[in-house]
Fold each of these.
Amino acid sequence: MPPWQETPSGALSPPVRDGRAMNTASDAPHYGRPTIALHWISVVLVAALWLGPEAGAGLAPPWLRGELHALHILLGGLLGCVLIVRVAVRGRDLIGRRGRRSDLPAEAMHAALYLVLAATIALGLVSLWAQGVTLSHVPATPANPALSRALIGLHGLGANLVLILAAVHLVAALAHHCLWRDGLLYRMHPLRRRQR
């Protein structure tokens, strides 16, 4: 299938065969601005969490490590909020597409990503609680170092699994772009312009 073409105005135009636009979008999802924005915000937050404060904490001077850990917790909480909104928006979109052909592997990949992200965030929160940190109105418990270490290990394992799933997701997106040429990357581009 030929790729989508960008018009002089910057809008995306579907592939043309025999002078007529091909109906490539009949089975393909149409992504709205909220979905695209939430996707790219999630990408940036996951990258920042994995590469940022915790990775740099070992290299940072001791007086900065606590601040970097606090930033990691803040970004993780923000990712949790984005994930809740993202799942709600995606659920609404899936209900709206009921009765249309769905791409089961893509839906399974998104479900796996959401579940592993949620579990990783939850493990991070529970590990804080096990360290004796007060979480808002949840009373702190006496610190349990052994439990905390185990939970932090599982949290790190979950973070690595998120990266593995994200890599598989990226390879699938590139396959759509390079092999099937169905315009998927164009539809998910954060700066795309809508056709009029």
Note: Residues 45 and 51 are 10 Å apart (CA to CA).
Amino acid sequence: MVALQVGVINVKDAWMEKVLTTRSNKDYLKAIYKVKKKHGGCRNILLANEMGVSKASVSVAVKKLEQEGLVSRDLWGINLTNEGEQIAERLYAKEMFFIQWFAEIGINEETAQADACTMEYAISEETFEKIRDYLKTCQLLAQTQTE
């Protein structure tokens, strides 16, 4: 059994929903986070490629996120603010949790990634935490039974 180990940052869902009214905004924050992890920085073209959208779409979305205080821009690219990074890390952690879980139960990688992205938005934070806690309990029980 693969251990599901994903860090969790406490960001209230209600606050996240208030600030990020659309799935698109959340997707952009998460994509910025992923691009920065992969490339060390985030520029419009890298974000456009990650999201499969035009640079113009990225500019509009980033401007909205900047107005919400979730990103900033400088000569080197797009940066997440502390709040933006907390939200992005939380979304990324949730997605990675589901990808790992789905892979563990035998779902192919492509389907696991697509379904994980859907699940991160389809369930509440409470449900996610209960699923995560339940699976951790199951893993602990399985470990004690094999020892």
Note: Residues 91-146 form one domain.
